[in-house]
Amino acid sequence: MTIKELRRNAHNKLIESGKTDTPELDANLIIMHVLSISREEMLLRDTAVSDAAAIEVNANINRRIKGKPVQYIIGKTEFMSLEFEVDKNVLIPRQDTETLVEAVISAYQGSAAPNILDIGAGSGCIGISLARYIPGSTVTELDISQKALDVAKRNAERNKVARQLSFVCRDIMQVKPDEFSGRFDCIVSNPPYIPTDDIPNLQTEVADHEPLGALDGGRDGLDFYRVITEKTAPKPGGIMALEVGINQADAVADMMYIRGYGNIRIIPDLSGIDRVVIGNR
Q: How far apart are CA 163 and CA 153, in angstroms?
């Protein structure tokens, strides 16, 4: 079997399954991963593929059909033009979250390098991207899961910002009110925001494979925003920037206003959905 035949078979199998909206992309990513080749090599070469490699590709295609996200199958994804390792211990970074990162980068253009707290670090995609794109910045990655922080540490090394990052394994719901207040120029978070009753209705590949703790935001999806705005605060004049779910922006903006934030802005993502609430202390 050649690479071209392998691509065609994998692509067709995913189309016939009806389990993915991106069958060609998923097939290509799996093949590039198994064969350790670039997209250009995959498209331009049509050499023979070993039986072992073909069997591995087919096994991964079957995993995708059963609902496992392709990012977990290949163990990595792209975010903010950087590559991140991902596994079952961390949420897969979404393009929507780039809106949050871009808002913080924009806020610090031409300013002194900030000291940033990233609450609910997961893969580290937010904090690591900020470290890469805001020269001189330092980031504290906070997460309840040591396994998630281990992934974030590897991603910091992968993206050459390890010296700018520190890692703290703590449950934000259990911290003291003054523990993380007044220490940072910027507090940023993409916390769990899915209402508990909505979890069973999520896509199978999300509900069955991504970590529940990174999704469940409590009865109304706002539990973590209440805690973050009540228990943490940046230095005077500093920034808090939070990613929010659909129809949550106004409620989160109100929480920030009550806590003394000004210049509060709501920023939509590329789909026009209100995605980020950002304000100054």
A: 10
In tens, the pLDDT along 142-158 reads 999 999 999 999 999 99
Tokens 């097939």 sit at which residue?
A: 27
Question: Distances in Å between the alpha carbon of 43 and those of 10, 12, 39, 40, 74?
Answer: 15, 17, 6, 5, 19
What number of other Cβ atoms are within 10 A of residue 179's Cβ? 12
Handedness of CA 177, 168, 77, 211 (dihedral sign): negative
pLDDT beyond 90 at 169: yes
- The pLDDT tens digits for 113-129 are 999 999 999 999 999 99
Contact between 256 and 277 under an 8 Å Cβ cutoff? The reply is: yes
pTM, 2 dp:
0.93
* CB neighbours of residue 79 within 10 Å: 22
Looking at residues 123-139, what average pLDDT do you find?
97
- What the chain holds in terms of domains, given with CATH numbers, is 3-74 (1.10.8.10), 79-280 (3.40.50.150)
Half-sphere exposure of 150 (CA within 13 A, CB side): 6
Q: Residue 208: what pLDDT?
A: 84
Predicted local distance difference test score (pLDDT) of residue 114: 96
Locate the DSSP E strands across 59-121.
76-79, 82-85, 115-119
Beta strands in the chain (DSSP E): 76-79, 82-85, 115-119, 138-143, 165-169, 180-181, 186-189, 232-233, 239-243, 262-268, 274-280
